[in-house]
């Protein structure tokens, strides 16, 4: 009996791994398959499915979208924070105040993409950085797009309400300037909200926009992809950067073929498009 249970669990792990790869590009190792499987088991129980195959049938049927959302939520790891890897926001400031200063003075649109934004902290950190650097009239031309595969995270990002505990201790003055506080929570002033737009998007699918960006954050997401998926993603993202634009990646991520992609390293896990 125990052996059967064990065999079933192993089989389910492979199924979970295949689904993860198919719907999100996420490459689960043994440990992560196991934790995703635990979460999925909980979903199966909540929705009274007998086994994972019944669940898969629902996901693959037309009305399965809602369930697919849940399986994606179970697979993803959404850890994030405001001003995480703070140096990138210093680079963004330099990018706007020096490299794209002339474009901003000419009132051109400036686009920033937080491409796996989780619950929105990365995009709002970029918005506060921009708001600190530019006058109100120039802010009208700044657009910050936040996207994530996890619909629940995008709902939270759009809601824009966070716990005060999420404010980094050394940055409370900055938040005082840009936020409204109530009870143990806070949200952003309207002109900060106006800078950001959130959409649900799987980064390995087709992108429903043609625009190029001046800065792209793609941090702590390729750690879940295999090498082939990651290499294709770096190439696609780079092709959407303006010359002089910058891409910021997670501290344990690397773009090994940066020269071939026309990138130059400019600091800690950051690259500038030079060709
Ligand atoms: C660890 S969080 C990183 C959040 C943020 N970039 C940061 O560094 O703080 C990884 C995020 O990537 C998202 N993600 C995973 N696979 C994705 C995909 N294929 N397309 C878009 N987002 C994805 C997850 O939903 C999760 O919110």
UniProtKB/TrEMBL annotation:
It holds the Pfam family CheR. Its EC number is 2.1.1.80. GO terms for molecular function: protein-glutamate O-methyltransferase activity. The keyword Hydrolase does not apply. One of its GO terms (biological process) is methylation. Transmembrane segments: none annotated. InterPro entries: Bact_Chemotaxis_MeTrfase, CheR_C, CheR_MeTrfase, CheR_N_sf, SAM-dependent_MTases_sf. It catalyses: L-glutamyl-[protein] + S-adenosyl-L-methionine = [protein]-L-glutamate 5-O-methyl ester + S-adenosyl-L-homocysteine. SMART domains: MeTrc. The keyword S-adenosyl-L-methionine applies. Residues 1-275 form the CheR-type methyltransferase domain. This is protein-glutamate O-methyltransferase. The lineage of its organism: Bacteria, Pseudomonadati, Pseudomonadota, Alphaproteobacteria, Acetobacterales.
